[in-house]
Amino acid sequence: MPPLDEFALIQRFFTPDALPAHVALGVGDDCALLIVPPGNVLAVSVDTQVPGVHFPLDAEPFLLASRVLRCAASDLAAMGATPLGFTLALTLPVADEVWLAAFSRGLLEAATALGCPLVGGDTTRGPFSVTVQVQGAVPEGLALRRTGAQPGDEVWVSGTLGDGAAALALLENRLQVSSSTALFLRRRFYQPDIDFALGCALRGVATACIDVSDGLLADLGHILKASHVGAVIEVAHLPIADWRAAVDVAQARRWALSGGDDYRLCFTAPPGQRELLAAQPGLACVGHIVTSSGITLVDEHGVASLPDSSGYQHFSGVDHVV
Ligand code: ADP
Ligand code: MG
Question: Are 240 and 252 in contact (CB under 8 A)?
Fold first, then answer.
């Protein structure tokens, strides 16, 4: 078979068969055309993933594709937006058809699962990297921003924390867990659930919201800074999954606080919303907002010290948070 040229590659691997009605034009022209529902604004976010930084060099392409799309889509959920579509910028050193077939399958399967169709992209030769830009819609005035947290609000998280750090430790052979827990962690790393329904349900309920991609302390820190407030976090209330039995309590809490890659939502809401929120499965109240700036950790013994590093930052000189 002759080597694939750029356009044959796009046609074969990155042109979905069916598109929802709001995609007036998909892959193949100079731009895609998306219909934004009346009264909504467009929510846009882009994420680049680099091998060795965001995923292991030997990551399976099927899983990698799912991870890249899901991590990008997490920003839409955090804004209270529903997905309209995404574009893909793929830079590859070679066009390996076996790799492309698996990557494309993983990508289109995740796109269907999330209801976020592939509508365009860019394909280039060079050092391997994957960039996904997501577009979503949110009713004007109802987007969940980082700016609205008020003293007295409670701090909530969806699902368990620290799974991303535990999964990375597992992938790097630094953690030993049962096969069912290993399966759970691999799934959490490569196929994190993105809860658009929760983001939508929080419109008009949450005062501020963010997705936990760099660790709870770092991401809650962004809400606090944007809202000019501080927070008290009850460390004993952090929701941590079964893998906690494989490490000591301090390590489990460190990963839950600053591990990153969790793709959960962290949001603030007035105490009046407590009953409604507590009735939702998987939500945990982990603290409250105060006027004085910064984060205070409280454990069974009183005020606890913050971990040395509070989250992953590129260009910080820190390699990985452990
Ligand atoms: P242009 O030169 O106008 O930017 P390209 O030649 O780069 O367009 O791409 C042709 C069409 O294929 C465009 O519709 C573009 O969005 C789409 N496309 C290119 N690469 C990808 C990809 N990796 N995934 C999905 N669509 C792609
Ligand atoms: Mg063009």
Answer: yes
- For ligand 2, the distance from its centroid to the CA atom of residue 28, given in whole angstroms, is 9
Of 80, 114, 138, give the one whose Cα is nearest residue 269.
80
Q: Which residues of 125-151 are buried (b: 16+ CB within 10 A; e: fewer)?
A: eeeebbbbbbbbbbbeebbbbbebbee
Residue having the nearest C-alpha atom to atom 9 of ligand 1: 122
pLDDT tens-digit profile of 215-251?
A: 999 999 999 999 999 999 999 999 999 999 999 999 9
| Choice from 9, 11, 23, 27 to test ligand 1 binding pocket (greatest atom count within 8 A of CB) | 27
Which contiguous run of DSSP H or E holds residue 121?
strand 118-125
The answer to whether the beta carbons of residues 288 and 154 sit under 8 Å apart is: yes
Question: For residues 84 and 24, is the Cβ–Cβ distance under 8 A?
Answer: no
| Tokens linked to 157 | 């998280």
What's the token pair of residue 223? Answer: 């809400």
Q: What is the mean pLDDT of residues 108-125?
A: 97
Amino acid at 298: V
